[in-house]
Amino acid sequence: MNVFLLQDEPATPKQIPTRDQIPSTDTWDLTQLYVTTEKWTEDLAQLQSEYPKIAEFKNRVGESAQTLHECLEFDKQLGIRIERLNHYASLKISEDSSDAENLKRDGQLQNLLTKIGEATAFITPEIQAIDDAKFEKFLADPLLAEWKISLKKIRRLRPHTLSEREERLMALGASAMGGHHETFSQLTNVDMKFGVIRDERGNERPLSQSSFSSFLVKRDPEVRKRAFHQFYAEFRDHEYTLASALGHSVRADVFYARARNYPSAREAALFRDDIPVAVYDNLISTVRANLEPLHRYYELRRRVLKLDEIHHYDTYVPMVGDVETHVTFDEAIEKVLAALTPLGDEYVRVLGEGLRTQRWCDRYESKGKRSGAFSSGSYGKPPFILMNFKEDVFTDVYTLAHEAGHSMHTWFAQREQLFQDYDYPIFLAEVASTFNEELLTHHLLEHTSDPKMRAYLINRQIDDIRGTVYRQTMFAEFEKITHALEESGEALTLDVFRADYRKLLDAYFGENVVIDRELELECLRIPHFYGAFYVYKYATGMSAAVSLANKVLNGSQTDVDAYLGFLKSGGSKFPLPTLQAAGVDMSSPTPIERTLALFADRVAELETLLG
Q: Among 91, 167, 320, 603, which has the minimal tally of Cβ within 10 Å of its Cβ?
């Protein structure tokens, strides 16, 4: 099941209506998954009675092509049912996490999935245990033609799969080795207290992990400054504990890589998607070579905001004052569909019907509903979208375009691929969503004559590239450095983390941005650092999306067809060949260079617009 998230700040509880106050036409139609919750319960019971039959294949998977086929097909039917059950249960919790029945339903399923995971654990090891000659013979058998892709992916992991006894030890130690995740989460989300801040109106507001960003966009520079220093004072009080947790996270990555015979932790993380380390290094070197436009942008910010000196906490407040807009959800649909017309009639028709009449989208906030936005799909069923749409927040139009990109990626992949091949990796997922945002920006810029709105749109695109390409690449470089230090035998201490992160801050922000010493502690509070080598995919995804959007907007029907082919391919190929077929070579620096060139052009235009 694909789930793609986009978070925003929750609204004030007293402003949120209850679920029964929302018209059904503004909610998603989950009867397309299960007509009633009773039907879901019946399906769960059927899964519970059927899954034990998988034991009939234990110690027999490699017996013959026929036996392997039967095992895979049985496991597939379990997978389809599990995905749909999980899809429904998770969506029900998302619409109201305070509902006891929703929580009970999800708990029942998760308990069963643990048992099913144990029951099916033998399948992959037994496939990998088949000798090479016999395995090649199986692949040549027409009976297994539809399973070739999956079997080859499983087989790729063979050099990094240990003996049954060793795998058992790895599994037993997984919870203990991953304890740093829980330590970080409990400390930062539960134990740490950040106090209150007086806002620009003199009102006291709680400062927290979730509200911190809302203070950084305040027009009053003193509010931003107070929030920054007060927030990081709490991290300073726990800096040694956090440094210990981060150090153990890096050491766990290195341990697993060495135990599974990978050359490095980074190569272990990139192996599953078949991404060469050169792609990772190309990203860092290309961004490093194009930092001047970023530094110029920070200086423009300082001038426009009329600051004597600019700090990190001044880099998020909008340069263009609030743009007064009022866009209904139906109007947002029209804007998004108009922007996506270059993708052809089928794309626009299917998405339009999904959003207008088939109720793919749960539109508005309600009490107990999950904040933010996401797209979530299961095989053969609609790709549902959760929104918390606000008519006076123009960014929500972009959120709709973003999630619609994920949903249509899922829709095309499901239609064209078998269940075992449709699910695409994160490396590809952010391409389709960011691509839609690029088309929306292009469309809106073409249809606005208001200089203030144009400046707002350009500033938004600049900040998207800054946050997704520049910032995530800096994070990716930090992960590369820290893991290399551990692999070379260096000690990972608080001072080491601070010193290496400070060098990156100085390089990426430039000499005209004042780097407060507290910002060195940022490396201890980024959740992704406790599950390393993920953030680079944000930067590569946006770079691929910018190149593909340019091809679709300025190319021929062949380029449109190639992009639609990318959506249809799902997970049937590894990411790099999938994107190459669409017309983007992510093994070269060119897509990143094009994205950074767009950034530089937009900065120059914004300089002109803002005088």
A: 167
Nearest alpha carbon to residue 323 among 382, 397, 251, 264 = 397
Q: Has residue 8 got a pLDDT over 80?
A: no
Contact by Cβ (8 Å): 39, 101 = no
Average pLDDT (498-527) is 97
Measure Cα distances from 21 to 91, 103, 253 in Å: 19, 21, 48
CA atoms of 275 and 576, how far apart (whole Å): 7
pLDDT at 12: 42
Q: In terms of pLDDT, which residue wins out, 354 or 114?
A: 354
DSSP 5: E
Cβ partners under 8 Å of residue 466, min gap 6: 294, 297, 599
**Dihedral sign, CA of 421, 422, 424, 428?**
positive
Nearest Cα to 359, choosing from 402, 431, 393, 407?
407
pLDDT tens-place string over residues 527-563: 999 999 999 999 999 999 999 999 999 999 999 999 9
Residue-wise pLDDT for 350-377, tens only, equals: 999 999 999 999 999 888 888 888 999 9
Stretch 337-354: mean pLDDT, rounded?
98
Q: Residue 28, by phi and psi: left (phi above 0), alpha (psi -120 to 50) or beta?
A: beta
Domains annotated for the chain, with CATH where assigned, are 33-161 (1.20.140.70), 179-322+454-530 (1.10.1370.20), 329-356+395-448+536-609 (1.10.1370.20)
Rounded CA-CA distance 102/88 in Å is 10
Active-site hit among 95, 234, 403, 479: 403
Q: Give the rounded distance of the alpha carbon of 507 from its chain centre.
A: 26
In which element (H, E) is residue 335 found?
Answer: helix 329-339
Contact criterion met (CB below 8 Å) for 362 and 95: yes
In this prediction, residues 501-512 reach a mean pLDDT of 97
403 is catalytic: yes
Say how far apart CA 424 and CA 314 lie, in whole Å.
Answer: 37
> Comparing C-alpha atoms, which of 44, 507, 488 is closest to residue 295?
507
Within 10 Å of residue 334's Cβ, how many Cβ atoms? 13
Reference 599, options 178, 218, 290; nearest CA is 290
* Cα–Cα distance for residue pair 33/358, rounded to 1 Å: 12
Distance separating alpha carbons of residues 591 and 584, to the nearest angstrom: 7
* CB-based contact 43:84 (threshold 8 Å): yes
CA distance 548 to 564: 11
Q: Which two tokens stand for residue 359?
A: 């109720």
* Rounded CA separation 278/286 (Å): 12
